[in-house]
Amino acid sequence: MSVYTGVCHGGTIPHKHMHVLGFNYSGLAVRGRHVKYGIVLVDDDPLFREWLRSSLEKSRDFTVLGEACNGVECVDLVHRLTPDVVILDLHMPDRDGLELAAYIRWHLPATQTIVTSSDDAPVYSRLARQQGVRAFIPKANLSISALRQSLQAEPVP
Fold first, then answer.
1. 23: helix, strand or coil
2. In the chain, which end has fewer C-beta atoms inside a 10 angstrom radius, N or C?
């Protein structure tokens, strides 16, 4: 299946054609009775995005709607695709993941955000909660199970 991608990836699927691929406009992919979380990945590391996309595509709980390699692409994709969840890298060149999480929370309050980072300092978890992020998951701990648990757990105020 093709994924809607940003400028750093080349070809794109126009939003108006997403229904052909089995997506409704809220980002949820419906396969029979099972509803998947529609995900947008945002990370400036193409190898990490590739690994995460591959892992998510093997799960029956997630569908990758699109990818972005920077904040500008992220903003464009979240408005076009209205995903259920955006997985954001904490450290990126133009806008960091916490800044993008705050933007998404303000403009798309139904979209949840998860921030990841190679740096697992406790301060980032606290800062993420202050921005309304659903979860901060260090990249060393990131797995389908960790994503599932963070989305099923009660949000921390």
1. strand
2. C
